[in-house]
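S.,

Sequence below, as promised.
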Amino acid sequence: MLELLSYTFMQRALVAGVLVGALCAVIGVYVVLKGLSFIGAGIAHASFGGVAIGFLLGVNPVVTAVIFCLLTAWGIGLASRRSQIKEDTAVGIFFASTMALGILLIGVMRGYNVDLFGYLFGSILAVTPQDVWATAGLGALVLTVVGLFFKELLFITFDPEMAEVTGVPAEKIYFLLLGLIAVTVVVSIKVVGIVLVSALIVTPAAAAYQLTEDFRRMMALSVVFGVGSTLGGLLLSYWLNTASGATIVLLSTLIFFAAAVFSPRRWRRRAA
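The prediction came back faster than expected:
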């Protein structure tokens, strides 16, 4: 273990893993409780188009991915709330079109781009100091906003209609939540990749939900599971020589199944 920590690339990977694991776990609680898992997956795949735009224009792909994902997230929200189509239909439309845009732009670039496909499948061992600072900065921004609007986010998660009646701008807070999901996705794609980031957002929170009905305790457990699966998966991938992103997500999934086995809800249903 101490030998691993002597490598600079591993130190950066561990720091990035802790930051991303905690951030995804916090946002994942709202995603799971509000039933936004499909939106999270749609935004994650939309980031592919944003990253491709960055490479095509020769600018930082994180910047273009943040802008693109924010527009996509808010576009999904507007389409589902202002038109006659359902939310999952809006996600499906944006999911397909943004991925298609990314594929089209890859063709325009006329060549296989290793960095671009690193965003698809994750490359936590290749994170740079700039990646770590970007992750820390964007993560701090998201968590600060969550702290400032904690009560409002909690209110619209459980009872948006009552929130509106009591003066909470439920629709604006909903769009704020979509924006937080979008930024979280972009922060995480360098670690686990676009394909797997939605799982890292959903699975730790879903595991925590199996064990408690208290919101604050659920968030704390989600952070423990998120950070634990990220660090554990990273170390396992190093020792087993497997893909880091996939190993992190599979370990998180094992934690979920273990939580489901020991879930108080499951034992209460059996007792009844």
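Residues 2-262 form a domain with the ABC transporter involved in vitamin B12 uptake, BtuC fold (CATH 1.10.3470.10).

Coffee later?
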